[in-house]
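Late entry, ribose-5-phosphate complex.
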Amino acid sequence: MQEPAIFCGNASPKLAAAVARAVGGRLAAATVERFPDGEVRIEIAETVRDRDVFIVQSTAPPVNDHLMELLAFADGCRRASAARITAVIPYFGYGRSDKRHGRREPIGARLVADLLQTAGVGHVITIDLHSSQIEGFFRIPVDGLRAVCALSDAIRPVLPPDTVVVSPDVGRLKMATEYAERLESSVVLLHKTRESGTKSRVTHLVGDVRDRACLVIDDMISTGGTIADAVQRLLEEGARPGIFVAATHGLLLAGARAKLSSASIAGIFVTDTIEQPVERWPAVHAVSVAPLIGEAIQRVTSGQLVGGPL
Ligand code: R5P
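Prediction complete; structure with ligand written out below:
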């Protein structure tokens, strides 16, 4: 059997290189750049004929550029007779657009699923999809990996023994329960209402945080508003300052640092599904998901079961 080809676009070069090392291989050669007018130019520099191809690319900001790179890459591989094309999308952008919230709204995640399949993608590997029903938008296999294990292992040594796991909204309750099981803790639930893309409000707290240490978990930190609101509410309810945060996808957009640079936040643990800028702030710790993805690739190429239910 031919060696699988692992490629990357411009969103995840460090993670892709670490994934290639984890499987004992190397990144396959390709150029991904822009024409002067901004269009994507891809040159695949080695044969993919009859090979199992993996394209590692988070659809991270700038989301549309990275998505188009991934689509063009898959199209190039399909036209070059790849045996199977797996899009490894550690962070799946548009995941929050998984239903219509009002009239005349698109469902972005479904559109992305259709585009990937049209481009020739035959299999998707992703991590902590915003909602598990997105799998149903695809007609091809989707393997959903979970970062809870890697993040809980990294954060366990620094957590005080009486820590409770806090879900910042109802949508993260299942994930919070998984953290609590791994950390042998209990769960507190906040209820959040979103007023706009940048503004949300905590309306209820279920549980008791008085004099307790807290770990707030989430699938992603985008503007930082959700975590900042959660921390503020926990402190108002008597939680001990020195709150920890764990989130799979650290988008950490402009403005997030200002919102989350509070003395009450002791540390923020994210994974490397989003590549962090060099001048990260000291409170942020990145945990690599390269071993997780590497193992998934090895399992796919050897026909074994990958991950569990999304
Ligand atoms: C929302 O449902 C998500 O799980 C996250 O809580 C949210 O997208 C985080 O965004 P931000 O950091 O902008 O509040």
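The first strand starts at residue 5 and ends at 8. Will revisit in the morning.
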